[in-house]
Structure formats: structure tokens, C-alpha cells
Amino acid sequence: MQKLTIMLTGSIQSSNFEDWKKELIAQLKTINTSLTSDSEFAVASDNVKQIKAAEKALKKAKQSAIDQAADIQKLFAAIDEVSAEARQARLSLEKQIKKRKKEIKAAVRLRGVEQIKTLIAEQSDDFQLIDHTSFLDSEQFSEALKRRATMSTLDKSMDELCDHITEAIARKNTDVKSNATAIHALPVAHQALFQDRGMLLDMQPAALNALIDDRISVFDQSAARVAAAAPEGAAEPAVPATPTSTDKTETGVENDPADELNIDFDMQATSEVNAQSERFEIVVKLDTSPDYAESLLSTLQKSLVADDAVISVRLMKVRL
């Protein structure tokens, strides 16, 4: 824009204000407020500087006119009008710049989060059981975009973060596979000690191996104490033969005589009930093979044989 000048000697002697005003208004009308690229943001920022300079020029010209003459109210009013219009255009543009930057940051952040969610969904079923909080922590996505002013730097920063998280997921997936292999390799008699699969898979392999050794050691020690407390020559309770007639469970549902998993271990020949005792049941439902169900039943029976409070341990096949 050309330089604004006003010369007064009691009356206006010379002024290019009208031409200058038309040029400024025309420029204000051409300002682009739909900002989508780095170059458009750069042009908008330059427009803000130019508009602010125009405001200063108008104020300076007004003061110069006041100093030169007092009978120029019409000129002053026109200057105030254009100054207000320029200020409004500047404020609107600054607001639009701030809003669009926030929208673009939000879009880039969402892209990163969705990319990681998709990657997690592509992993194994075992990986789905572990805690994914560290991979989807919202704070790390917001932090990656701080102090990034251009679209290119926003995208680059988010891509770098997603690459870092992808590598972490790959390392974690390796640990999960290693842990799954260790759990699958456990003897059937010990697998009942490791039902908290999600937590176990999420551990470091070395920590899981230490936990496996610890749980098995505690279990073996408990079994040894039970065996030592049993009377000499006492035989383990026998497993009754499969019923030959149709029986009913405690829920009233008939069991097919062909079902092979209707096993009842009586833990006490008689049960002395005192005034404070009450009857309770602990129900554990399994979705597994018959061999594993029978093995678990045997393990429980051995561990509870010395407990006088336990009346019986039952294994029944549930009809779906």
C-alpha cells in the first residue's frame, strides 16, 4: 500500500486519503480467512501486520490533522470509520488463525490415536488381553504437538511418535508370545494356578518365570504338608463309576447317564454341625477339556482333604 499523507492549513490543502481508503478497504475484502495450508497461514500473518500498520498510520494521520487544524471533523470521522473497520478485520483474522490451528492440531492428534488403535487391533488375541494404556495415553499425543507451528512439523512430529509406539508394541508382542509359550508349557496339574492370564501375559518374561517358579513352589509345599498330615496308609478317595441312571443336579437339571464328568468326592464321612456353622458353596465354572477338568478336581481334592470344613468337591458336566 502507498504511504498515507494528509496536509492541512486550516482547510485541507492536499490529501490522498480517499484513494488510500479505497485501496485499504479493497485489500481487506480480498483477505483469505479459509486457512488450510502453511503458505496461507504465512500470508494471513503478513496481512495482520499490514493491517496493524494501517491502523497506526490512521492514528498518526489523525493526530497530524488535529495539530494542523480544528475544522476537519468530517475527515476525522472518516478516519475513525476506516480505523474501526481495519481493526475488526484484523481481530477476525487473528481469531480465525487461532481457531484453524487448534482444529488442525486436533485432527493430527486424532489421526495418530486411530493409527495406534488400528495397529493394536491387528495384534494377536493374547495381546488383546493385556493393558494398552501406555500405548494410547492421550498426554503423549498432545505433548508431541506442542510448540509445532506449521502443518509439516505437526505431521512429522506425530509420525515420529507413532513410529516410536509401533516399535514399543512390536517389543511387547514379542514378550507376550514368549509368556504365552511359557504358560502353555506348564504341566496340566499346575495350569490351575495360572488363571489370571491377562496379567501374566503383560509381565516381563523374566518376572513371569520367577512368578511361575514361586507359585509352583508354594503349591508343592502345600501339597507336601497335606500329604504329611494324612494318616499312614490312607487311600485317596476313589472316583465313582459313571451313574447308570438319570440323576438330577442341585439345580434340578437332569444329567445324561452318558455324561462322563459327574464326579463327587465326599470329603467327610460325617459332618458335625455346631450352632455357629452354616452351609456354603463355592462355584467355579470351566470351559476346558474333560482331562483338565478331572485333573483340576483331583488337585483341589488333594489340597482340601485335611480341611474339616469341606464336605465334598463335585465335578458336573453342564448341558448347554
Keywords:
320 residues; two-stranded antiparallel ribbon; mainly alpha
Give your account of this protein's structure.
The chain is mainly alpha-helical and 320 residues long. It has helices at 17-29, 38-68, 73-121, 125-128, 133-136, 138-144, 151-184, 197-201, 205-229, 290-304, and strands spanning 6-9, 11-15, 247-248, 254-255, 263-266, 312-315. The strands form 3 sheets. A two-stranded antiparallel sheet has the order 1-2. It has a two-stranded antiparallel sheet with strand order 3-4. It is rod-shaped and about 130 Å long. The termini are far apart.
Short description:
This protein is 58% helix and 7% strand. The protein contains ten helices and six strands.
